[in-house]
């Protein structure tokens, strides 16, 4: 669970990028974070990745205060968090398989585990046939699915997606969102920063709206009446 209490972040000049943010994200939630450019969404993501520390307040993830983590603890914490970016950030000089295997090697997985886990995530994103392709041979939608597979291969508890559909056409955007939903249904907590209000409305999830560094709305999706 993520507990954000009284978090502000200033970059030193001008108004704070985030002001007195308070929110909790429970295990297994799917949350959209929306807001105009400059509203603090990237700052929020960077704080959750501990690329930045808050100027004030605390971020506690699964009972660990991120501000207290040293480099070793930070490395361990980051294994819990898979990240997906707008621009995919795949390594262009190696194939799909190696792009994903690389993340496993970093955490010291055995060759056997690597094979098994890469095959598992490629199948999950529907790209088992493409493991020998280079990113340059893939469409944008396929590249983002590879990036998602890479984010998932170490079995993270959390997925953070920063404008994951920003470079994709509507059809591929939907495909990525449906995959994120499926991953969430399998138990991963998913946080998605996006501008795509059409998708946000249709998905019917919790939506946190930011404006000039302030949380102005936090609305649950409508209850699904399946009980
Ligand atoms: P968003 O992701 O919603 O566009 P950001 O978190 O990037 O918002 O930015 C929030 C505010 O913080 C903006 O006013 C932006 O100009 C400012 N900001 C972001 N990064 C920096 C930085 N490295 N140095 C100074 N100001 C920054
Ligand atoms: P290297 O560092 O030598 O590239 P990798 O661990 O990345 O080693 O991969 C070894 C090779 O195994 C890959 O290039 C890939 O083509 C191949 N491979 C074997 N089995 C599979 C599989 N089930 N799915 C994908 N690739 C596989």
SSE pattern: EEEHEEHEHHHEHEHEE
Unreliable segments (pLDDT under 50, ≥5 consecutive)?
none
Number of helices: 7
From the coordinates shown, what is the CATH architecture of the domain at 2-90 and 156-219? 3-Layer(aba) Sandwich
Strand content: 15-25%
- By DSSP, the count of extended strands is 10
Instruction: Please tell me how large the radius of gyration is.
Output: 18 Å
Strand order within the widest sheet?
6-7-8-3-9-10
* Helix proportion: 25-40%
For the report, how would you describe the main beta sheet?
A: 6 strands, mixed
Helix/strand structural class:
alpha/beta
Cα distance, first to last residue? 25 Å
Shape: globular
Rounded average pLDDT: 95
Pfam family, one: ABC_tran
InterPro entries: AAA+_ATPase, ABC_transporter-like_ATP-bd, ABC_transporter-like_CS, ABC_transpr_LolD-like, Cell_div_FtsE, P-loop_NTPase
GO molecular function: ATP binding; ATP hydrolysis activity; transmembrane transporter activity
Subunit structure: Homodimer. Forms a membrane-associated complex with FtsX.
């Amino acid at each position: 669970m993520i507990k954000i209490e009284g978090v502000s972040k200033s970059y030193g000049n001008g108004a704070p990028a985030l002001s007195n943010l308070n929110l909790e994200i429970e295990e297994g939630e799917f949350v959209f974070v929306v807001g105009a450019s400059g509203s603090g969404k990237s700052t929020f993501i960077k704080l959750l990745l501990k690329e930045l520390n808050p100027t004030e307040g605390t971020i506690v993830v699964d009972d660990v205060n991120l501000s207290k983590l040293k480099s070793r603890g930070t490395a361990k914490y980051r294994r819990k968090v898979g990240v997906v970016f707008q621009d995919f950030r795949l390594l262009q000089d190696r194939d799909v398989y190696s792009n994903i295997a690389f993340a496993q090697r970093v955490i010291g997985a055995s060759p056997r585990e690597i094979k098994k886990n890469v095959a598992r995530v490629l199948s999950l994103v529907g790209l088992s046939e493409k493991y020998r392709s280079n990113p340059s041979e893939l469409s944008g939608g396929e590249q983002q699915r590879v990036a998602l597979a890479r984010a998932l291969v170490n079995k993270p508890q959390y997925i953070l997606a920063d404008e994951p559909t920003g470079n994709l056409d509507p059809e591929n955007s939907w495909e990525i969102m449906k995959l994120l939903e499926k991953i969430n249904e399998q138990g991963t907590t998913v946080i998605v920063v996006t501008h795509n209000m059409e998708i946000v409305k249709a998905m019917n999830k919790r939506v946190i709206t930011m404006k000039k560094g302030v949380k102005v709305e936090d609305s649950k999706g409508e209850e699904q009446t399946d009980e």
